[in-house]
Design a protein that fits this description.
Elements (H helix, E strand, L loop, with lengths): L1 E2 L3 H6 L7 E2 L11 E4 L1 H10 L2 H5 L12 E4 H10 L6 E2 L4 E6 L6 E5 L4 E3 L4 E2 L6 H5 L6 E13 L11 E5 L2 E7 L4 E9 L4 H4 L3 H11 L5 H8 L7 E7 L8
GO molecular function, one term: monooxygenase activity
InterPro entries: FAD/NAD-bd_sf, MOase
Keywords: Monooxygenase, Oxidoreductase
Length: about 250
């Protein structure tokens, strides 16, 4: 049994009989896009969905295969490739514990039901109930945040098919084309106290991001100004040190 419905968790289902418990009522995803390099495409080839996904994104100039996929496309195609009823939607897990007699995982759901599992895989994010079960330390907040989004160009973006990265002081900006009409971009910068409020409003995210990159080239500033509001996210980055997962 797997908790959550992230990229890792859906990938685990291929070839393994498993039930996925998902809190949402439908297939959804967070984040705009993901860059996939050669090793990732090898895995997708093994899963039998690489050809379908390659039609969703153009190749980016690099020393190895690199394409930028919309996360929604990747999640949907992965989910569609699973057997029917593998994902159970609307399952809000309150807690996980071990059965005192069998040592098997027990999951307590919000609706009052309890599910027993032989094997439990946790892919349920930074507030994971599974990580609490196995005693992992909580993630720590970085002093940085990440903003990302899409910008659409109905007549074509006209940019080279390259992964461009620019730095100005403590700001990092990246841009990758998804296809001939859509560009994915991200900005990394220091977190500020006002970002807790800004992160809830796409218009404020756009305004704050534009203000932070005014020293960048005009075409970059215009790209963010013209970004698709529905795609914008601002997240305070979190971190779990590798040694914190040693049990």
């Amino acid at each position: 049994m797997a908790v959550g419905r992230g990229l890792e968790e859906i990938t685990l289902q291929k070839g393994i009989e498993c039930v996925v418990l998902e809190r949402a009522e439908f297939v959804s995803t967070t984040g705009a896009a993901i860059g996939i390099y050669t090793n990732g495409w090898r895995a997708l080839d093994q899963l039998g969905i690489a050809t379908q996904l390659r039609h969703k994104a153009i190749p980016i100039k690099a020393k190895e295969e690199l394409r930028c996929l919309k996360r929604s496309d990747l999640i949907q195609i992965l989910a569609d490739s699973l057997p029917l009823n593998t994902i159970r939607f609307g399952c809000h897990i309150l807690a996980a514990k071990l059965d005192l007699l069998t040592s098997q995982p027990l999951l307590q759901l919000q609706d009052g039901s309890v599910i027993k599992s032989k094997v439990l895989i946790g892919c349920d994010g930074v507030n994971s109930v599974v990580s609490k079960l196995i005693g992992l330390k909580a993630t720590r907040l970085f002093s940085s945040c990440g903003t990302s989004g899409f910008t659409s160009y109905p007549s074509g973006h006209g940019s080279s098919n390259e992964f461009i990265r620019m730095r100005r002081g403590n700001l990092l900006l990246g841009r990758m084309p998804v296809d001939d009409n859509l560009v994915y971009w991200f900005v990394g910068r220091p977190w500020t106290p006002s970002d807790s409020r800004v992160s809830k409003e796409p218009e404020l995210i756009k305004r704050a991001t534009v203000e932070s990159i005014m020293d960048f080239p005009t075409e970059i500033v215009e790209m963010v100004k013209n970004s698709d509001l529905d795609s914008l996210t601002l997240t305070n980055l979190r971190y779990r040190a590798p040694w914190d997962i040693l049990l």
